[in-house]
Amino acid sequence: MIFPIVAYGAAVLRKVSQDITPDYPGLKTLIDDMWETMYASNGVGLAAPQINKDIRLFVIDSLQIFENLEDDEKGVYPDAPGVKQAFINAHVLSLDGEEWAYNEGCLSIPKIREDVMRAESVTLQYVDENFEPHTKTFNGITARVILHEYDHIEGKLFIDYLKPLRRKMLQGKLNDISKGKVKIDYKMIFPK
């Protein structure tokens, strides 16, 4: 099932999400539906708040990014060929390395892309779909995608990293998104 994506301005996008237990109703189906929704929306990551669920769950597929790199970009990122994975109850243990800029976008904030500074690597504690615990360090593009989705379960958006003047310049576009005045090729839920 393909879920509609929650648009900028919805309260769920600003809420800190809750950990879940292994008996969370329909978890396997929910994760399958999140993959389907992410791919149908041409995303590389999707967090549960973006489908109106305030739980600590997100999926990422950075493999797609590596498949679409230009020749001069190949070999630049240390995390090739990327990662396709679901993360449940993720919590950041540490951020390491130099911050670097990369142009980010978000399915909940369509048609806006901005350079965002993020750490080179992130160490996460999380459980997988079988509720097996993991502590793992990710770097490069994969770390960036993870941190972007992790922000969603913490009630943060990529635009929060922008300088105040830049945010002010984007406010008209953000208001249009929250009012549903944006043309996109996937279903969205707009705030009331």
UniProtKB/TrEMBL annotation:
Work out whether the entry's keyword set contains Metal-binding: yes
Primary enzyme class: hydrolase
Catalytic activity line of the entry:
N-terminal N-formyl-L-methionyl-[peptide] + H2O = N-terminal L-methionyl-[peptide] + formate
Source species, domain of life? Bacteria
User: What positions does the entry give for Fe cation binding?
Assistant: 106, 148, 152
Single Gene Ontology MF annotation: peptide deformylase activity
Note accompanying the cofactor annotation: Binds 1 Fe(2+) ion.
Q: What is its EC number?
A: 3.5.1.88
Q: Which InterPro entries match?
A: Peptide_deformylase, Peptide_deformylase_sf
Q: Which cofactor does it need?
A: Fe(2+)
Alphabetical keyword list: Hydrolase, Iron, Metal-binding, Protein biosynthesis
Which Pfam families does the record associate with it? Pep_deformylase (PF01327)
The catalytic site is made up of 149
Extract the NCBIfam families matched here: pept_deformyl, PRK00150.1-3
The entry sums up its family as follows: Belongs to the polypeptide deformylase family.
What does the protein in this record do? Answer: Removes the formyl group from the N-terminal Met of newly synthesized proteins. Requires at least a dipeptide for an efficient rate of reaction. N-terminal L-methionine is a prerequisite for activity but the enzyme has broad specificity at other positions.
Name of the protein described by the UniProt record: Peptide deformylase
